[in-house]
Amino acid sequence: MDSINGPVMPFRAPRSGRLAENVMHFARVLRTAGMPVGADRVHTALAALQVAGLASRRDFHAVLAACLIDRVEHRELFDQAFVLFWKDPDLMGRMRALMLPKVQLKDAARPDVPENRRLGEALFPHQPNRPDEQPEQEQIEVNAELTWNDRELLRQADFDTMTADEWRQAKRLLAQLQVVLPPLPTRRQARAKRPGTVDARATLAAMARQGGEVPQLHWRAPRSQPAPLVVLADISGSMSRYSRMLLHFAHVLGQAQAKVDSFVFGTRLTRTTRLLASRDPDLAVSQVVRAVQDWSGGTRITTSLHEFNQRWARRVVSSRSTVLLITDGLEHGDTRALSFEMARLHKSCRRLVWLNPLLRFDRFEPRAAGIQAMLPHVDRFVPAHNLQSLSDLVAALTQPDTPRPAPRPRPAAGA
Amino acid sequence: MSDTALPTSIDDTLARLAQHDYVADRPLATCLYLALKLQRPLFLEGEPGTGKTEIARTLATMLGRPLIRLQCYEGLDLSGAAYEWNYARQMMEIRLAEATHDGRSKDALGADLFSERFLTKRALLQAIDPANPVAPVLLIDELDRADEPFEAFLLEVLADYQITIPELGTVRATQPPIVILTSNRTREIHDAVKRRCLYHWVDFPDVSRELAILQRRVPGIADTLARQIVAFVQQLRSIELYKLPGIAETIDWTRALMELDALVLDPELIQHTLGVLLKYQDDIARMQGSEAARLLEQVRQQAAERPA
To answer: Which pLDDT band holds residue A190 (cuts at 50, 70, 90)?
Structure first.
């Protein structure tokens, strides 16, 4: 009875092995649908099923959920997969006898196609009527006049009007950008050469080794770490070219030692942190492009910021974070709400930097209502339309600066 | 069987928790039962105030085990969480050895200095101390408040219930403690930690469960008031607020209303006590004025449609 004192129960496969097999198949479906279900989790699930969970369908669900899920976002996916996979009217009765036949999904009574696309692909890998994914087509412009190779000129070239060739070179230049972000002290300590706090443990270990002689003191000092970055990129139609380059830029930042979280938004907000983790910049950015469906669609800045504040800000933004917001700020509709969301975002981070390609126009005046609403809440307002402006931005990020009051919108000059 | 033995089934777990005034739902009871049975740590994630910490306390009293609590914070390190050498006593030992010239060799003194006598045990080491007469309940509270490097310290404890002290060797629990980890999800916990645990997302309770909790936690509450409070809070959670009120807030609010001798909810009373329920000015501002009255009217209508 009191098995807590004994060793952890070793797993014995059920005699017929059918249940184990089906749980494994189920795990494989989940894995294909994008849930990270390792073999160890399956192992735990099988051990758990021997202890409990065969009394009712609900318990069976609870046991599998406890063992196979490890984050709340996956619950819905799991539930859908569960319903589809274990859709067998007499399931529990037969499972008690451990004689579960293989679930046949592709035959007659095909369940309604799941809403989740990933899950659909995992369960029905060869669904015929799914449209093939359109390969992303870059517009290649041939322009004989613009074939100069000069680095300086390239640095000044606007991303939006670059030729394909320049674009490639610009990406190469961007990848060479040296990003050293200023370290911020953390609450954690590390060994240090210089006097600071005495490292009592190391000092006493040295004393013990020397038989108690007057020690040479060892020291500790606060460890420092670059401030984490959060990138929020607008990918709506007017911004797509810039955003694409800025995703490359985010990738460069991510390869520096700082922790970078990235999101893109058009009409919806999508987290792209894991997609950008790939070391190859082209691969990483194309993964983002493929995963995000509303690329180059419309933009809804307010709702996207609202969703970010509501769902993500508390999880990814800390009081040490720098937030890079990349958008042209051309929002129509209720600017009061936009101003409110910007204020909230500004409060939850250390620095809020707004990159706006519209600043490329020399005589740009922030007259659009959306821009007016956002400007009071940013710490820095910088252009982001060519390589020069990006390296200026890096220089600005590198300087350890203190957050300062936001610039006031300049009064509109007479036309 | 004594009343502090492990529960024998999921139903038993539910019933035993209820005996100790914890009204759990079945998925949570299943997770707990499995955690006890499989001797796995249980990782509970959920909004603040949904009873995650309380489950560890209830478990400790239910099973008659001591509760060891480790509150996480940024910068928490090994010496705060697991163990620390008592440097002052070690210094004294060295001075004493010098003063008495007891002829101990350097090596012997070195070995002595890092023996268990000079070790200060903190929560993690206390929980796996082989000298424990009974395995305790170890609560690692609000893990998301600690910084990421701290999670690495936990891996050895969670997987093998042991801690390796370089100077001393490996300390291993003879009976694995019951480990509960909680997180409010202000950041993601690393997969390596989650992998070693059973996971459960603690949701807000539904109407009937919240009512049951209220009746157990606030004895003497009038039935009509309790129903109104629960219906109102449930209604409140359906609005998009920055921070939704948890069950802890419901209990606090109920106590506050009872202190004010309220018999039924009315808009003015709600206005004045909103600070107990909502903790963000933006949320409070949203509920100010006609919004609270409108919600209350909805609640009344629902109650009229479905008489209890």
So the answer is: confident
Which residues in chain B touch residue A8, judged by CB atoms under 8 angstroms apart?
38-39
Separation of alpha carbons B47 and A191, rounded Å: 37
What does the pLDDT read at residue A14?
44
CB pairs under 8 A between A and B: 128
Q: Are residues A243 and A207 in the same domain?
A: no
Q: Are residues A268 and A209 in the same domain?
A: no
SS3 B284: helix
How much is the pLDDT for A227?
81
CA of A50 vs chain B CAs: smallest distance (Å) = 10
Task: Indicate the number of domains in chain B.
Answer: 3
**Residues A287, A278: contact at Cβ < 8 Å?**
yes
Q: What is the DSSP letter of A377?
A: G
Residues 178-237 of B with CB under 8 A from A: 185-188, 191, 194-195, 198-201
pLDDT, average across residues B216-221: 91
For chain A, what is the radius of gyration of the CA atoms?
A: 28
Residues found in chain A: 415
Token readout for A151 is 């680095």
CATH assignment of the domain containing A347: 3.40.50.410
Cβ distance A315 to B6 less than 8 Å, yes or no, reads no
The whole-angstrom distance between A290's CA and the closest CA on chain B is: 25
Nearest neighbour of B201 by CB, restricted to A41, A72, A212:
A72
Instruction: Note the pLDDT of residue A112.
Output: 42
Kindly identify which residue of chain A lies nearest to residue B43, measuring between CA atoms: A70
Instruction: Tell me the CATH number at B59.
Output: 3.40.50.300
User: Within a domain: residue B1?
Assistant: no
Residues A205 and A282 reside in one and the same domain? no
Contacts of A305 in chain B (CB under 8 A): none
Nearest C-alpha in A relative to B201 = A72
Residue A390 belongs to domain spanning = 229-398
Decide: B140 and B87 in contact? Cβ < 8 Å: no
Who among A38, A205, A309 is closest to B195 (CB)?
Answer: A38
Does residue A103 have a pLDDT over 50? no
Which chain A residues have a beta carbon less than 8 Å from that of B240?
310
pLDDT at A118: 52
* Confidence tier at A281 by pLDDT (50, 70, 90): confident
Task: State ipTM.
Answer: 0.71
User: Do B76 and B101 share a domain, yes or no?
Assistant: no
Checking if the pLDDT of A142 tops 50, the result is no
Tell which of A73, A75, A191, A201 to mutate to test the B interface (max B CBs under 10 Å): A201
Confidence of residue B307 (pLDDT cuts 50, 70, 90): low
* Same-domain status, B126 and B193: yes
Sign of the four-CA dihedral B183, B189, B193, B197: positive
User: Edge-to-edge strands of the sheet including A197-198?
Assistant: A183-192, A219-226, A197-198
Instruction: From chain A, pick out residues whose CB is under 8 angstroms from the CB of B149.
Output: 188
Together in a domain, A317 and A382:
yes
d(CA B192, CA B137): 22
pLDDT digit string (tens) for B258-295? 999 988 888 889 989 999 999 888 888 888 878 888 88
Q: What average pLDDT score do residues B14-35 get?
A: 94
